[in-house]
Amino acid sequence: MHPLHLFRPFEVGTFAAVLLGLCLSYALAWGIPARFLSHAAGWSSMRVDVLAEAEEAGLDGGVIFVTTSWGSRLLAGLRERGVPPSLAEQGYYGVDHCELQGLLDRARAGAWPAARLNREIESLMAGGEVLHSPDLNGDPTLKLRVAGRLTPACAEEIAHDRAGYTLYLPHLLANDPRLRGRWIVAHDMRSENARLLAAFPGRPASRYRPGRFEPLSALRGPAVSTLARP
């Protein structure tokens, strides 16, 4: 056999099949299990009628903010700032979440264009830091540096999650399509909630965690200065 025959290119169909097989192998080995773990705890929310629970709790209309995990808020915040889905996902798994949250906060405060935020995320990803997923808030997709202590802001996010969270998507259809009903059910974005409340002035607001409602006026962040990374 001529040596050059060893380097014959794949046929397009063969190459596509091999590539598909590699992608499926990755998904089965890592992607699907990680997603399964991150959402399994929230699947019970698909059987919850949040409006029925609200009425049983004595609420009579208003805005309900459904509490989700810090990771869900991070991803939603990045997408809201115009970060493409693929880059938001890569940044989520490749950047310390404390740094990612700080970056998002600065982008909001400075009204950064999406292009600048995208560049900053790519710059952080280029560092190639070693990350791990400590069991601090029940979310196996949490990413933090191996060494160091949490900043007060990050510790507060984790303490917020420890009080309970669920998924938002199953509750989305509880809304009137024109948002003119008695209830508005929204994704709890914490510091960004005031923007939504401004669009519905005069309505009482509550935060929903599994099995309970908290009046928005009564919400206070717990003391978190003692939380440290393991």
Biggest sheet strand order reads: 4-1-5-6
What structural class do helix, strand and pairing data support?
A: alpha/beta
Query: Largest beta sheet, briefly?
Result: 4 strands, mixed
Shape, per Cα inertia axes: globular
Distance between the termini: 59 Å
The overall average pLDDT, rounded, is 82
The number of E-state strands comes to 6
Number of domains as seen in the coordinates: 1
Order of helices and strands: HHEHHHHEEHEHEE
Note the beta-strand portion: 5-15%
Number of DSSP helical runs: 8
Enumerate the spans where pLDDT stays under 50 for 5 or more consecutive residues: 1-8, 23-42, 218-230
Helix content: 40-55%
What gyration radius follows from the Cα positions, in whole Å?
Answer: 22 Å
Helix and strand arrangement:
Layout: H1 12-40, H2 50-56, E1 62-66, H3 70-80, H4 85-94, H5 97-110, H6 114-125, E2 131-132, E3 144-145, H7 152-162, E4 183-187, H8 193-199, E5 205-209, E6 212-215
Parallel strand pairs: 1-4, 1-5
Antiparallel strand pairs: 2-3, 5-6
Helix pairs in contact: 3-4, 3-5, 4-6, 5-6
